[in-house]
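Subject: for your reference before the review

Hello V.,

The reviewers asked for a structural picture of the protein, and I figured it would be easier to keep everything in one thread rather than splitting it across files. Below is the amino acid sequence we used in the manuscript, unchanged from the supplementary table.
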Amino acid sequence: MRQFIRQLHNMGYTEAGAVEPGVDVMYVIQNDMPYIICFIDINMPQAKSRERIDLIDTEVRTLFSRIAYDNVTMLKIISTDDLGWVRENLSDLSYYWIFDTNYRRLLIYENQPSNFLGIKSKIEDYLYGREPDKKSKRTEIDDLNVIYRPTKRTFGDYMTVTNIIILINVFVFFITVFGGNLESGTYLRKCGGMYVPDILFRGEVYRLFTSMFIHSGFMHLVSNMFSLYCIGDLLEPVVGKVRYLIIYMGGGFFASLVSFLYHMEFRYHVVSAGASGCVFAILGAWVILLVFRSANANASTMGYLIIVVILCVLPGFTEDNVDNAAHIGGLIAGAVIAYIMHKISDRKTLKNKG
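And here is what came back from the structure prediction:
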């Protein structure tokens, strides 16, 4: 953002006195009132602290009060590569936007100002690399009210956890598809599918994990990976890579466990495989995130997710080859894991305030 900050000089903004390293304060006077944009980089060592951000806010207001401006309007633009930390610690902060340095995009949550003296469009011009006032197509994610403006991205930018998981599943599929008939239960079992007798009598518990990466056909793979890309690509930037992986793997394991218990009672000799339990875990986490985090919640997104859940679960009650036990188990597990993470975040926020 350094180059954009320099561009503000050409837009009539003035640089205020130095506050501390990693902080740039620009302001413009309109109607005898200062409008301040405070850029705060929390990627610097020892910079990721809610107390530090509150202190910067106080220092900037004090700086302007010394020159007889007791009433100021200030927008904080926080540069970070850790959205999970922001969600945990800044949920009650007012008047701030986020510059996600991982994907070079501007994030504006619903409880924050949607614009500030027209500066949003200027930032979008900068991020998108377009000339000012030139129209371009926007992509909006309704549940986060996010404006996404990509610039040139490197190979590493595409290596999200979601994309890596998709690549692993595709890789495993191509290894297995050339080794035999994936529609055969015997071959699926050989590849590592979830099979009750092998877990009960041979102790092959690893099947609860390996079954999450095996698919019984090309369309089975495509449907699961497309669903994962659509849902996971939205959730991962919000909760962070580590938490996202915990939700995916933890939810998938619990889905396999529920499937195992169900098969043990009703479908003893049926081999089960697929990543759908993991996908449902991601879906369950999204529901909890939208319910308990007001910055994300809106009626249209909730309605959309409810419809998705119904459409995904319903075929399991009408088709014999759909493992609905894994779907429901994953949905519940993802919701529970996300709820626990939400409560832990709340406790950390309260501790920071105290």
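For the response letter, the relevant points are probably these. Residues 219 and 225 are 10 Å apart (CA to CA). The radius of gyration is 24 Å.

Happy to draft the paragraph if you're swamped.

O.
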